[in-house]
Amino acid sequence: MKIELTVDGAAVSDDVEPRMLLVQYLREKLGKTGTVIGCDTSNCGACTVHLDGTSVKSCNVLAVQAGGRTVTTIEGLADTVEGDLHPVQESFRECHGLQCGFCTPGMIMQAVDLLKENPNPSEEEVRLGMEGNLCRCTGYHNIVKSVLHAAGGGAA
Amino acid sequence: MIPVKFDYLAPTSVEEALAALGEHGDEAKIMAGGQSLLPVLRMRLNAPEVVIDLGGIDSLRGIRDDGDAIVIGAMTTHHDVREHALVREHALLISKAVAEVADSQIRHRGTFGGALAHADPAGDLGAPALALGAQFVIAGPGGSRTVEADDFFVDLFETAIGEDEILTEVRIPKHTGWGAHYEKFVRVAHQWPIVAVAATVRGSIDEARVGLTNMGSTPLRARATEAALAGASATEDGVREASQLAAEGTNPPTDLNGASDYRKHLARVLTGRAVLKAAGA
Ligand SMILES: Cc1cc2nc3c(=O)[nH]c(=O)nc-3n(C[C@H](O)[C@H](O)[C@H](O)COP(=O)(O)OP(=O)(O)OC[C@H]3O[C@@H](n4cnc5c(N)ncnc54)[C@H](O)[C@@H]3O)c2cc1C
Ligand code: FES
Ligand code: FES
């Protein structure tokens, strides 16, 4: 099936099988391996991207469902702002919000969504807003700190 | 894992969707937000030949005021239901419960109608819909019919929606000014409840409605507790006493998360908490 969509600012079109997941499409067809797969059950959030500006788990969306829409991945996030990195990326670096880094693309994409909806979250609100993202290294303290730091810096 | 091959149809009207269902019969599966269906397909627990995506049918999305009820389109996302002022004003219990469904990403895609049609006994929206006396509008080849909440939930993953039918909207009778609380008991974040209780009360307490999640193969009403609460005062002792009746007539499952008896205990404790919070006590 033919799909046309915008991914990280570029118009792309492809012929895909309806059963192809959006995450597979991004990784295997477009080579955007910044978006990762961490589970089989849509629990972990590592695959989080923005579909028309809101966060979704790209392992739980079909590529055909993204037809006609706009997808932003971790690879294109910095291009949505001035500067080299998005402020949330900057904050994760500043606060060391990662250990092995596997969950980080999803964490950052979800944090950006969270701050868009709630620019000044409490710690509790950050923890709740990030509940769909698991960190196997369990480095949650610094992840939460990073999100709060980004909020303090007026990011989002 | 990747689903088995299927054909994908994206109708733009309910009529087209019904025609596609009629044509493909039990080889077809309806997809709403896909948040329960896609995991099922990926684990290959089901392998429909045709997936009919309702995502392109705009008329199924949105929330409107209809006099004595609010009407929630089946394809309205959990996120949009949660945020909506009409829901907060007239069906606070739904706002509270929907906030507890899954996580932010899943609430952006998953739909109100999809969750109710899926009828997972551990799903968070069945008990509040039942407690509020929701009416389910179901479209089929012969037109639309309305099913009362008491008749909608038939069994585990089974509702009154026929194979050739589509849930189009859910009418929630207005419960304006009623206090509400959804008390969900989980072991880990963003998961289905082991047991949850949906409570909404008028005054403190003139009338009460209590729905139970995961206390049987369908959502249930705690009718004995409701009767005991009517006209009771919202004191801790009074509410706790009425809550002792919450597990009456239930037959909860025993599974890895807990034994049947444990669930009955949870139902009584959580009902007390939910009612007290709903009554603002
Ligand atoms: C990790 C994870 C955690 C979750 N946690 C929770 C939780 O804590 N609580 C909870 O309640 N839910 C939870 N869910 C499920 C979530 O709420 C889903 O959004 C919901 O169950 C299904 O909604 P959907 O719109 O995605 O439906 P789909 O997945 O598209 O469809 C579900 C089923 O309903 C049928 N169907 C859908 N719409 C219609 C219709 N209009 N007419 C007829 N049939 C229809 C489909 O054919 C399918 O069989 C979770 C899901 C995931 C992946
Ligand atoms: S890979 Fe998508 S949620 Fe885990
Ligand atoms: S940093 Fe390793 S999974 Fe989160």
From TrEMBL, chain A:
Where is the 2Fe-2S ferredoxin-type domain positioned along the sequence?
1-77
List the keywords (alphabetical).
2Fe-2S, Iron, Iron-sulfur, Metal-binding, Oxidoreductase
- How far does the signal peptide extend, from start to end residue? none
Query: What would be one Pfam family of this protein?
Result: Fer2
Under the heading InterPro entries, the entry gives: 2Fe-2S-bd, 2Fe-2S-bd_dom_sf, 2Fe-2S_ferredoxin-like_sf, 2Fe-2S_ferredoxin-type, Beta-grasp_dom_sf, Diverse_Oxidoreductases
Q: Which domain of life is it from?
A: Bacteria
* Gene3D superfamilies tied to this protein: 3.10.20.30, [2Fe-2S]-binding domain
For this protein, the record's PANTHER family field holds: OXIDOREDUCTASE WITH IRON-SULFUR SUBUNIT
What protein is this chain from? (2Fe-2S)-binding protein
> Which source organism does the UniProt entry give?
Nocardioides astragali
Q: What is the lineage of its organism?
A: Bacteria, Bacillati, Actinomycetota, Actinomycetes, Propionibacteriales
TrEMBL record, chain B:
Q: Which SUPFAM superfamilies does the UniProt entry name for this protein?
A: CO dehydrogenase flavoprotein C-terminal domain-like, FAD-binding/transporter-associated domain-like
InterPro entries linked to this entry: CO_DH_flav_C, CO_DH_flav_C_dom_sf, Diverse_Substr_Oxidored, FAD-bd_PCMH, FAD-bd_PCMH-like_sf, FAD-bd_PCMH_sub1, FAD-bd_PCMH_sub2, Mopterin_DH_FAD-bd
| Source species | Nocardioides astragali
Region Disordered: start-end pairs? 239-258
Q: What SMART domains does the record tag this protein with?
A: CO_deh_flav_C
- Looking at the record, the residues that make up the FAD-binding PCMH-type domain are 1-177
Which Pfam families does the entry link to? CO_deh_flav_C, FAD_binding_5
Question: What UniProt keywords are attached to this protein's entry?
Answer: FAD, Flavoprotein, Oxidoreductase
Q: Which residues form the signal peptide?
A: none
Respond yes or no to whether keyword Flavoprotein is given for this record.
yes
Protein name as catalogued: FAD binding domain-containing protein
